[in-house]
Every structure is written in C-alpha cells, then in structure tokens.
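Putative 4-hydroxy-4-methyl-2-oxoglutarate aldolase: structure, please.
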Amino acid sequence: MTAAGESVVPAEPGAPEDDAAADLVRRLAALPTPNIGDAMERLNVVDGDIHPVWRGARMAGRAFTVYVAGGDNRGIHEAIPRLAPGDVLVVNGQGIANRALIGELIAGRAAARGCAGFVIDGAVRDVRDLEAMGFPVFARGLSPAGPYRNGPARLGVPVAVGSVVVRPGDIVVGDDDGVVVVPFEEAAAVARAAEDKRDAEAKQRADIGS
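Here you go.
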C-alpha cells in the first residue's frame, strides 16, 4: 500500500523503439480509424464520447499510460518528462468532466518532447490554443475549471479509457471519427487487414463512379 498522494512509478522502459515498431505506427497512421476498427472486428474502439476537441486532429503513436484521481493531474505532470518522441499520452481520468486535466501549457510541454497527442477520459480546456498549436487532443469533455494536483497517480500501468483497456506500448490512432487502440502484438496483422479493407473500399468507390 502507498501513502495518500503517493505515486507509483514502474521501472523505466527498455530499449528505444525499433524500426519495425516505428514502421507499424507509420502504417497505422496512414489508415482511417474505421478501417482499423473493422480490422479488429469492431473491438478496441474507444467510446464515441471521447472525441477530437478540434476538427482535423489526427495522431498515432505508442501509448504512455497514466491513471489519475478524477479531476487531479499530478500524474500527468509526472509523466511529461518521461515521454519519448512519438508517444501518445493516454489518461484514465475516471470520466470526470467538470475539471480539466490539461490545457495548452501542459500540451506545449508535451509537444516539445515530441509527444504525438493526448487521449483523456476526462475534460480538457484551452481548445483554441490547442488547435492553433496543431496538437491533437481527444477527450470526453471540456471545462474551464482547473485541476487539483494532490495525487495519487499510477504511471505505465494498463488503464481503461472509454471502455477499452490500453497497455503501455499499444498503438493508439485517432482522427475525426474517434480513437482506436491496437494491441502491439497484433499490430502487424491489424495493419495488413486494415490496408486490405481500405483498398477494397477504394475499389468499391471506383466501381460506383464508373
């Protein structure tokens, strides 16, 4: 057991992402989320209430997971210095939508570390600034109210976000349609199936237009 407010942080991650993993992220980043979701038999599709906070936001990357108390962003502050380029910060904020867990200042710090975007099961604020930065954020809600910073928090553990379990290192993809989570060990097969789905739909569109 830990004392109140104490964060539990796992060991530092291992070797940097290899070329094969980076290639999987690139392939999935090029695909629409509906094709990816269909390739997973409509599983691992995040609750539609978690949506892009500005139109046109798009991201893909490996998950860095955080579990925080509702309305409290201590764990997010602790996570930012640990982010690697290309990470997507995925936060279980317990669905609390009356206190924003992040705004443009935290997003700016994350962007400076090469973070690919945020997925937050909770609220955010500073939407116009986030859009002006071009920083992708997907969240359950918006609130001008700021967070507490008391803890507790857990970093680098499996989290539930929008009814989907996200583990550290899973590939997270978001676009205007929402967010999908690809278990890393399934990513190659999912990418192939989603590419086949995309190509089949392109043929159908061509046939319709002929």
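Notes: Residues 203 and 209 are 10 Å apart (CA to CA).
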